[in-house]
């Protein structure tokens, strides 16, 4: 039976997904070669790819003796799922509470402030 799809990726899973999102596809060796330091063992990459496949994040096809893995979920969708998870667990499903926390703690560039201001203005007008 396939594992239940987790709303968030572990650190190892995210590292491997980053390679697959960047390259679109790859074998275990390709993913291993595409990892940023620190390195992981071949067996760790293989096991983590199998876990990601069981969770429904990736799929494979056979190319000779090798399995070639590809992402089934876009980076943006994975990020949205993770944010939704945090939103529900820590902010009572209130995007406003999350936004206030984020805006209160981090320095923003002028471009980021302008983008946020535009988004707020659009929301006030009822546009999406």
CATH fold annotation of the largest domain: Arc Repressor Mutant, subunit A
Radius of gyration, in Å, reads: 19 Å
Write out the strand line-up for the largest beta sheet, numbering strands in chain order.
Answer: 1-2
User: What's the shape?
Assistant: elongated
Unreliable runs = none
Supply the CATH class of the largest domain: Mainly Alpha
CATH superfamily of the largest domain: Winged helix-like DNA-binding domain superfamily/Winged helix DNA-binding domain
Number of DSSP helical runs: 6
Number of domains: 2
Topology, please?
Layout: H1 11-23, H2 28-34, H3 42-55, E1 58-63, E2 66-71, H4 75-90, H5 95-105, H6 110-125
Antiparallel strand pairs: 1-2
Helix pairs in contact: 2-3
């Amino acid at each position: 039976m396939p594992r239940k799809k987790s709303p968030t990726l572990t650190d190892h899973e995210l590292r491997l997904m980053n390679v697959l999102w960047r390259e679109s596809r790859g074998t275990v060796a390709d993913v291993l070669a595409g990892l940023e330091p620190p390195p992981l063992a071949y067996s760790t990459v293989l096991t983590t790819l199998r876990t990601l496949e069981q969770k429904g994040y990736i799929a494979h096809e056979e190319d000779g003796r090798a399995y070639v893995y590809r992402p089934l979920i876009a980076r943006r969708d994975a990020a949205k799922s993770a944010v939704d998870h945090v939103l529900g667990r820590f902010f009572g499903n209130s995007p406003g509470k999350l936004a206030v926390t984020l805006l209160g703690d981090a320095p923003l560039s002028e471009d980021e402030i302008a983008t946020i201001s535009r988004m707020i203005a659009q929301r006030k007008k009822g546009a999406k």
